[in-house]
């Protein structure tokens, strides 16, 4: 019988990546001479880039090029703008005691590995899945499917942990329980509206919910 699995989102769940993401949006939008409303950009941390740039008014014929340019900027300014949230290391350490850990992130996979490696967090994860380097679209439900496929299919027990509705929807689609974290970029209303199973106000709360539910 396979071990339980906990699939973590990255941005807004384990690391605060807002500074690098917002800087990359500003640099990209400046090149296309588009407005950069901070209130709108704040809602675009977490969703797939193709969806975000569509919301910003780019037409389908433009989006591949603008996403590629965003990623060029992010490669320079993004990873350095990420820092783990308070309690992240303890959350992973304790979760690792009761389950196999994985990452499913809409961030390009090489960027995700670079960030986790720089903070000494990569070793906690058996599987890390992110958006393809070639820029192809990758939605969260597909990313979680890839994680579970690499882990041998759906486990008998498991959680998806994230801060946005995309994480909740992806977890539910694959039969995982869902834990919404309230320190990221989503809100309690967004997560509850998506049907989240539980909410965590801080890392200690998340540790308690995950470890109690999965303890042997």
> Could you say which overall geometry the principal axes of the C-alpha atoms support?
globular
Largest sheet: 6 strands, parallel
CATH C-level class of the largest domain:
Alpha Beta
Number of domains: 2
Please work out how many helical segments DSSP would assign. Answer: 10
Q: Strand sequence of the main sheet, in spatial order?
A: 5-4-1-6-7-8
Q: How much is the average pLDDT?
A: 92
Structural class by sheet pairing and helices = alpha/beta
Per CATH, which architecture of the largest domain? 3-Layer(aba) Sandwich
Helix proportion range: 40-55%
What does this structure look like?
It is built from ten helices and eight strands. With 216 residues, it is α/β, with parallel strands linked by helices. The strands form two sheets. The chain has a six-stranded parallel sheet, with helices on both faces. The chain has a two-stranded antiparallel ribbon with strand order 2-3. Strand 7, helix 9 and strand 8 form a beta-alpha-beta unit. It is globular and about 55 Å long.
Give the SSE layout.
Layout: E1 5-8, E2 15-16, H1 18-31, H2 38-41, H3 49-55, H4 60-77, E3 83-84, H5 88-96, E4 100-108, H6 109-118, E5 127-131, H7 140-150, E6 158-162, H8 165-173, E7 177-181, H9 188-193, E8 198-200, H10 203-214
Parallel strand pairs: 1-4, 1-6, 4-5, 6-7, 7-8
Antiparallel strand pairs: 2-3
Helix pairs in contact: 1-4, 3-4, 5-10, 7-8
Salient structural properties:
2 domains, 216 residues, two-stranded antiparallel ribbon, alpha/beta, Rossmann fold, 8 strands, six-stranded parallel β-sheet, DNA polymerase, domain 1
């Amino acid at each position: 019988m396979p071990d339980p699995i906990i699939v973590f989102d990255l941005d807004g769940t384990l690391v605060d990546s807002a500074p690098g993401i917002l800087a990359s949006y500003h640099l990209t939008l400046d090149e296309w001479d588009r407005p950069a409303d901070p209130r709108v950009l704040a809602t675009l941390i977490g969703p797939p880039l193709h969806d975000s740039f569509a919301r910003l008014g780019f037409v389908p014929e433009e989006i591949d090029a603008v996403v590629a340019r965003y990623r060029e900027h992010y490669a320079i300014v993004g990873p350095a703008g990420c820092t783990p949230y308070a309690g992240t290391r303890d959350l992973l350490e304790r979760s690792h005691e009761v389950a196999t850990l994985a990452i499913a992130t809409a961030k390009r996979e090489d960027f995700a590995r670079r960030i986790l490696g720089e903070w000494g967090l990569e070793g906690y994860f058996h599987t890390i899945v992110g958006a393809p380097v070639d820029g192809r679209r990758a939605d969260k439900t597909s990313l979680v499917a890839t994680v579970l496929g690499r882990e041998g299919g759906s486990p008998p027990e498991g959680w998806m942990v994230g801060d946005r509705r995309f994480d909740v929807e992806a977890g539910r689609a694959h039969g995982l329980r869902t834990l919404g974290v309230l320190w990221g970029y989503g809100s309690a209303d967004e997560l509850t509206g998506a049907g989240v199973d539980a909410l965590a106000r801080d890392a200690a709360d998340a540790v308690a919910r995950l470890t109690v539910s999965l303890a042997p």
